[in-house]
Write a structure and sequence with these properties.
This protein is an all-beta fold. It has no helices and 28 strands.
Amino acid sequence: MAPPPPPDPKFDLRGIGAEINCLHFYCKVQKPCPPLLFSGLSSGLIHVWNLNTRRTETILNGHDSNSVFWIHNLHNKDCLMSQGRDLQIHTWNLAEGRNEVTDSIAVDSVGFCKCSLLNNGSCLLAMPGKELSQVQVIDLASKKILGCMNPGADSKWGMVMCIKLWQPKSESSPLLIAGYEDGSVVLWNVLEQKVMSRIMCHKEPVMSLDFDCVNAKGVSGSSENILNVWTLDEQQNLKTLKTQEIVNPGIADVTIREDKKIVATAGWDTRIRIFGWKKMKPLAVLQYHSASVHCVAFSDHLIPEERLLAAGSKDHRISIWSIYSKT
């Protein structure tokens, strides 16, 4: 018996007029507050979408027409951070209809490495540093640098491409996982500023990664036609667990859903792929976009059945999918 055909999008968002580089949901709200989707564009704008009306509530313009490639809520739906190609990280106040930049952090890196935010009592931000392979972690309240991870001139890892900051329960220091231009994935101790483990995952630069700190397991993608799944053992050693082949090369983004059940990828081949996270079983290939998919994001609805997947593309569209799975 043939498998059922993949679903169509629940709806799409248009009239954007630019490539969509990044997406972020804020849906853990009580009625009457609407669930929100934030989209960062190549034009430098940020659209704030009301998912009930499927229209923009606000358009933010603070990066001088430079591409926005990372957005994240800081404390609540009214406090947003954005990172742009103008080498600025802005904090926005959106309360009561405002759209003002209340704080900015200058970035010394000219690469495409997105920031990573950790809120574990104090808000910590990992961001690319001045040197090619460098990552800095700062305390947002004090602006103090907690750690500066720099492998040194002789490492030849190349540019840092993607990062994920997290706090293990058994460690006093936050840990940072970073993907580099040489295809390696590296685990850093932030406070000690030292490498704990390093593995070669790809033959090409690591384009994206995500890490499941509950199961100590991560996934990374590159311009190749593979996803690499790796684990972190109790001795803090990274080990390759599985290499999952896909049909066409190029993974622009990969993200694990909050419940650790499924993972989604954004493909250069215009496709969105869904896998079961436990065994990386392919579940669906979603086809809607006419150009490369740049980013994917899962919603954080409080009710699991309401959770959505959003994908943003070079074709100036955002597709919204209902992917409720207990897999």
